[in-house]
Specification:
4-stranded antiparallel sheet, flat
Length: 86
């Protein structure tokens, strides 16, 4: 059983796919990169799998992330600009 939950664009040729699947007879949540190119189209080895019995731990960890911590810090951005200029 495979059920795609969402697809997030990472770049022009790469998406991050979130899906529920059954691997080796065990259900779980898989988060993997999917590429589209002339040479290869399909899933890469990059990603992770959360077994169904560990999903609540994973979900709690994700929900504990403060979105403010993901915002760019203006001081950090200014430092990056200055580093590039030197």
């Amino acid at each position: 059983m495979e059920k795609d939950i969402d697809r997030i664009t990472k770049s022009a040729d790469t998406d991050i796919v979130i899906r529920i699947d059954d691997y080796g007879g065990r259900k779980g949540l898989t988060i993997r990169e999917f590429v589209k190119s002339e040479r290869y189209t399909g899933f890469t080895k990059s990603g992770l799998r959360i077994p169904a019995d560990k999903f609540n731990i994973f979900k709690a960890a994700i929900n504990s992330v403060d979105e403010k911590d993901l915002e760019d810090d203006p001081k950090t951005e200014q430092t990056k600009i200055e580093d590039r200029e030197n």
